[in-house]
Amino acid sequence: MASSLTNSIFLVVLWSTILFSFATTLLAAVSSLESEAVALLESGWWSSYSNNISQRCKWHGISCNNAGNITKINPSADLIPVGDRFGKLNFSSLPNLVLLDLSDRKLGGNIPPQIGDLSALKYLNLSSCELSGELPSSLGNLTQLEFLDISYNDNINGSIPPQLGNLKNLVSLNLSWNQFAGLIPSGLGQLTNLKSLILAGNMLVGSIPFTLHQLTNLATLILDSNKLEGSIPPNIEKLKNLRIFAIYNNRFTGSIPPALCHLTNLLILSLGKNQISSSIPSCIGNLSKLQTLGLLSNLLEGPIPKEIGNLEALNILDISKNKLSDSIPSQIGNCVNLWRLDLSNNNLEGYIPPQIGSCLSLSYLDLSSNHLEGYIPPQIGKFSNLQYLNLSYNNLSGNKDLSPYLCDSPTTPYFTKIFLPIAIFSTFSILGCLLLWRFKAKKNQSGSQTTKNGDLWSIWNFDGKIAYEDIIAATKDFDIRYCIGTGGYGSVYKAQLPCGKTIALKKLHRLEAEDPGFDKSFRNEVKILSEIRHRNIVKLHGYCLHRRCMFLIYEYMERGSLFWVLSNDDEAVELNWIKRVKIIKSFAHALSYLHHDCTPPIVHRDISSNNILLNSSLEAFIADFGTARMLHLDSSNLTVLAGTCGYIAPEVAYTIVVTEKCDVYSFGILALEILMGKHPGDLLSSPSSLQNAKLIDVLDKRLPPPTSQLVAQNIVQAATLALACLNPQPKSRPMMEEVSKEFVSSPKSLEIPLRMITLSQLVNHEMHIGGRKETCHV
């Protein structure tokens, strides 16, 4: 009896202990969740949610895990007051936070040392926050960190904390465009997982640390615009995965080490504006993947090695302002993908090799200030892409003082000659392809997909049935008669299906499938881009993937590209001022959607008049995602050069950093092109034109001047925003979200008549964009 009573008491005590422990744990968890919400409220940024703590996971810019813990903070710029200095955010109350993204939020002030309390943090982006002071050493406590970006803050100074060497999981480190001084810490060599290291635009001194050769996973090393000196270390050859090596605008001396020639994965090699001497090693020809070679403004001498002709992938070759001698090697004609060639200000002699005529993609050619002689090869006159030509200060027959020449249009006349309305439906550069077996789709096209042996056929959101036989029949097996255009990645076919529906088929070149990473990249990018839903972005209906043939299925645009319409006088007149402003607003909203409403954000990288398509009602749609890139939170967003000459942001040529601001610049160019009826290259290349010209004088003369005051206001608003987007400093350009919001608001009344407004007034016009004043300088 006593034993039974004892057992009962024991069980009661045991269960009471378990229940108490469970209740305590539950209360602690609830308390922890509430403390996270309280921390957000106390910051002042989410004060409007004070009566809704239980719904904290649905607050703007907040994400949670399954347990309800706050794991991500990514508020919009509207939520955070300018100069709020991190509010009163209590970092110690957010132990589960893995992502903190406050980029482009004008916080000001110093980075608080308490940020080191975020022990679970993996992603920290504080770029373009107008921060100042020194980096806290407590950042070294964030040992789980994989991504750290504190770039473009201008006033962050002091030395780079050596404690950053503790961040062994770091994959990407970007401290560029601040005021860091002192040496590059040797401890960064311990970050063996690092793939991207960007320290450009600071005041760093000393040499490249010997320890950096330990970063064998490094793909990107950018040290531009510092005060670094010494020679390029020979142990750099250990960095076998390096794709981008940039030390432009420093004080490096010595020669180009043969060790660089062992980095056969290099895509970008930028050594310009240093004091590098000796000759260009012939082994430079081993870098067969190289796309940009910048050696300008050094002390290089001797001949240009003929092995330069091995670099068939080269897009940019700039070895100007050196002491190079001898003749231009004829092998340069093997570089058929060149679009920028600058050999100016050297001691080159002999003839211009006629083989240069094989470089049909050239848009920029400068051979000035040398000792060249003889006749100018007639092949140069056949460069249909050429925008800039300078052969002056040579001894060329009949052209002694030939001066720079800037073409009227940057757009390839090739498209003018064979372009028909849908020609530039160029899409993803790495997209896919079609199954060749005889297959008939039986299901409704709103969601059909079939796979077999690595082949893929998929159609989404289509109101009819498409089978492979229908495609073959509609195009007579892709007969040339149905081809309505061609581009860099394939040909476009017009196909009318049995149901009467007309579609556009982008049949991609088979060469794209030879890349081993093609299939994975194709499926990933198609998946993301298939989810895009915006009325001003061309709809992708589906795709076919097969080892022998590949195409994509798009809605058909009856009026073709904006370039085609602007190039045709009759069609251009139909595009009146109201429609032009509407087009500018439409693709501004579409770009804002890509940059700010897609996860991850998408940067198009090739905004041009060829890639804006028009339907039968002259409504605008963005097309050609062939070079689009997703801005992944866990990547450095560096890439090879892409885009259309004349629309590419100036910083892209040497930094190769993909940001939304690249698209912003292209938007500015294209908006002016729509207003002017032609590319604004001539206008922007002449400072005197900007200072003296009146807005009314640069508007498209094929249209009568606007008589409506409202239309005039809209034109001025569009022109002002376009010029703001052309600021040479990326951080000073507005975001597309801000541009889009400006267009939604009513344009301001004009204080003076349109005929009296000058471009200089617009260029230097102080305007409120996104809650801050901007002074625009082009």
TrEMBL record:
It is an enzyme of class 2 (transferase). Residues 478-744 form the Protein kinase domain. It comes from Durio zibethinus. It catalyses: L-threonyl-[protein] + ATP = O-phospho-L-threonyl-[protein] + ADP + H(+); L-seryl-[protein] + ATP = O-phospho-L-seryl-[protein] + ADP + H(+). It is found in: Cell membrane; Membrane. This is non-specific serine/threonine protein kinase. Keywords: ATP-binding, Cell membrane, Glycoprotein, Kinase, Leucine-rich repeat, Membrane, Nucleotide-binding, Phosphoprotein, Receptor, Repeat, Serine/threonine-protein kinase, Signal, Transferase, Transmembrane, Transmembrane helix. Belongs to the RLP family. It is a single-pass type I membrane protein. One of its GO terms (molecular function) is protein serine/threonine kinase activity.
